[in-house]
Specification:
By secondary structure, this protein is an alpha/beta fold. The protein has two domains: about 20-60, no CATH class; about 75-200, Rossmann fold (3-Layer(aba) Sandwich), CATH 3.40.50. The chain contains nine helices and four strands; from the N terminus they run αααααβαβαβαβα. It is globular. The two termini are about 30 Å apart. Iron/sulfur cluster binds near residues 3, 10 and 23.
Amino acid sequence: MNCESCKKLSCVVRSEDYPKNCPMATSREVFEEARKIYEKDSETRRMAAEASIVEAVGYMQWPRLRDTIEFARRMGYKKLGLAFCIGLQKEAETAARILREWGFEVVSVMCKTGSFLKTEIGVPEEYTMYSKTGYLIGTVTCNPVAQALYLNKHRTELNIIVGLCVGHDAVFTKHSEAPVTTLIAKDRVLSHNPAAALYTYYWNSYWMKEKV
Ligand code: SF4
């Protein structure tokens, strides 16, 4: 049993009647450690608290972009980073304009920055496709390490992901010094709404059929 299939939800109702394998029964040290971090790390404590306040104030009223703005405002961040994908440059431009209208300084950086070749970072030649539009974007790699280092150099206080590829988002997050939040999770097939794959899932879903 894992949390995802738990029906007791003892954590939600603060019951000590834990289901089998409940983390609260098997891993008490985790919660002691977490409590210490909230106590000792005032920034983490404040971030977690402000996030909950934003949730409460804007519940069922604000889209994620407004949640992001309000979280940044409440944290007192002035300088935000936008790490975006070339495929979502328009979205990044709109997001940057709105964030600036709200008074933030915005530093943005595109995934292809640096012009590194995919082969330079170990991508086999057969996976360096040319794009249908004729640009050579298939041969130039996304460069999430450079995106993070650039925003680190500018000392951004919160970095916002706009449509980075799966995996590149993980690399970016790993190397970002500022905390990272995602405004748009890339999904090329589902209008950047990855949850739609869950809502429309059945075993014979067309996207489930072939393994490559
Ligand atoms: S923490 Fe325990 S009670 Fe909560 S969802 Fe997970 S298994 Fe269930």
